[in-house]
Amino acid sequence: MKKLITAMLLFAFIFITPSIFLDEVHIEAAGKTMYVNAKDDIILREKPSQNAKKLGTIKNYSAITVLSSSKGWSYVETNKTKGYVYTSALSSKKPTPTISGGLIPKAGMKLTYSPSFLSTNKEEFIVSKDTYCTYLINISSNGSDLCYSEKQSKLSMGVSGTDWGFFNLTYPMKQGQYIKDTYFDYDSMKEKYNKVLVESTSKQVKVKAGTFDNVVILKYTTGERYYFVKGIGIIKATDKKGKTVTELSSVKNIKLTTTDAVKLVQKYTGFTNDSDMIFEYDHKNDEQHYIIHVFRFVGEHTATYGWYGVDPYTGEIYDALTDNRI
Fold first, then answer.
1. Where is the SH3b domain (predicted)?
2. Is the pLDDT of residue 180 over 50?
3. Whole-prediction pTM value?
4. Of 14, 75, 96, 277, which one is least surrounded by beta carbons within 10 A?
5. What is the pLDDT of residue 273?
6. pLDDT reading at 22 higher than 60
7. Domain 2-91 belongs in CATH node 2.30.30.40
8. Domain 258-325 belongs to what topology?
């Protein structure tokens, strides 16, 4: 009889007790790879509640490991951090995002290309922005500045201060569909276009600067390709034979140095090759922007051409005397 009672108690402990604590104990299952497929990045929370502590965010379209799912929430792991997300924000199929903008670099970065856009050599650019353009200001000797623009559902790029353009592409960009690269034909005095295939919006591509996810690859009918990354712009370009003609070799979010600021002002004023003009860092103003003095010697005296401010975080240049922002 005692043996029977003992057996019954053991049965109850093994099979009934876990159900009592089921809501308090999290049982992890084998991981399953799924993908974030939402309107934007999603929040990772400590508990399955919209008011729970926020552990971080997970980028849209990225892969995560799902450990379990229940009542509209999934317990997941990403970058060695575990937490909860809405199950409705996940997909078992790798999504192919539609791109409607953002394929230009963010101000304040330093981008290095080797080979570069108009040179087979290495060139460094500081990204600066104004109302009209996002500029790649070339701080290598005698290099051309470039300009990105995103306006009226179009992405364009060309040489700053000229009518030389590389492309004028239409948004949105959806994988497997064609977009237009428009241009003005002076012979017919009409706007025309070339068809461009959106080959991918989700591939991983490795270049000298690193490995990038969700790369937008555009293929022309002649075989040339452009590779774009959101917030950076072009990371690679290949010719019709597949040879790399432009490649990003370094990308940095940095605080500009005084030497960088001097180079920016040299480019802006157009006196890069004027050996008589002197560009000199003088001080920081109240905004902690670099103040650059531009002058030349006339006999025993100095003749000031101007004073310029440079924001070390965005590369913005302005007249320091009038505070006229460029």
1. 31-94
2. yes
3. 0.70
4. 14
5. 67
6. no
7. yes
8. Nuclear Transport Factor 2; Chain: A, (3.10.450)
